[in-house]
Amino acid sequence: MLPGVIIFARMSSKRLPGKMMKKIGNKKLINHIIDRAKRIKKKGNLILATSKNKEDNYLVNEARKANIKIFRGSLNNVVKRAYKCCKKYNLNSFVRICGDRLFLDFKEINQFIKKYQIKSNKIDMASNLLNGKIPPGKTIEIINIKALKKIMIKTKDKHHLEHVTTYIYENKKQFKLLKLKKPKYCNYRYRYSIDNLSDLKRSQFIAKKEKNLTVLSNIKIFNYTKKWFQKHV
Predict the structure, then answer these.
(1) Cβ contacts of residue 51 below 8 Å, gap of 6+?
(2) Do residues 180 and 128 make contact, with C-beta atoms less than 8 angstroms apart?
(3) Measured between alpha carbons, how far is 109 from 152 in angstroms, rounded to an integer?
(4) C-alpha pair distances (Å), 147 with each of 28, 42, 141, 168
(5) Is 146:76 a contact under the CB 8 Å cutoff?
(6) H or E, element range at 146
(7) Beta-carbon neighbour count of residue 197 at 10 Å?
(8) What SS3 state is found at 46?
(9) What element of type H or E holds 94?
(10) Which of 69, 144, 166, 191 could tie 47 with a disulfide, CB 3.0–4.6 Å?
């Protein structure tokens, strides 16, 4: 069974409220993420997993327009949200896409899914973060539903339940893990995620240079990001 792809997003970002609906070029952030996620070839259902809060209705409407699946669950217990989403759509595993991953690497995800499937029954999580520190926005994780169940049994800590994989990284010996290669074309001093106003301005700078961010290559993303940081840091 192919892993599903789950986009985790909400409107109540503390550092950049409503960021999912912010315009970057000619599209909202949520639409950029959906469009890049659609380019993941070897996948099961593509799903938006958001909360039941009214403000997240905006995201649900965008998901419907994009013709992808929707799941609504707990706002803060994201592990539980992920688990129930998997149950609803009969997923054994999924690629985790955070709502800040404007430049998610669909090509590398395609390659990693192939590698994961060879050992999928024996692996709790495959991640490129297991090979050491990487820049924000470049993490790729494929998670088995068994890992989610184990987390919910092992901890009630709010921080671990909100961030899905934090417990796994802090308790590696309890899980069967698969190390994936570190991403290409990136510098550890740079950022590729959308987490604050500076990140938003950087992405809008790139959008002014390139109309179609959906297919923008890693090397171009890296070069534009490098130019931004050289001018603003």
Answers:
(1) 10, 12, 72, 73, 74, 75, 81
(2) yes
(3) 26
(4) 32, 21, 12, 8
(5) no
(6) helix 145-154
(7) 12
(8) strand
(9) strand 93-98
(10) 69
CA distances from 111 to 35, 64, 91, 183 (A): 18, 28, 19, 12
**pLDDT score recorded for residue 189:** 83
Query: Distance from first CA to last CA of the chain, Å, rounded?
Result: 45
User: What are 151's two structure tokens?
Assistant: 């987390």
> Using CA atoms, how far apart are residues 81 and 163, in angstroms rounded to an integer?
11
In angstroms, how far is CA 223 from the centroid of its own chain?
22
102 contacts 213 by C-beta, under 8 angstroms? yes
43-58: pLDDT as tens digits: 899 999 999 999 999 9
How does pLDDT run across 193-205, given as a tens digit for each residue? Answer: 999 999 999 999 9
Token code pair at residue 11: 């409107």
Spatial contact of 204 and 25, defined as CB atoms under 8 Å apart: yes
DSSP 165: S
- 143 strand-pairing partners: 94, 125
Distance CA 199, CA 153 (A): 36
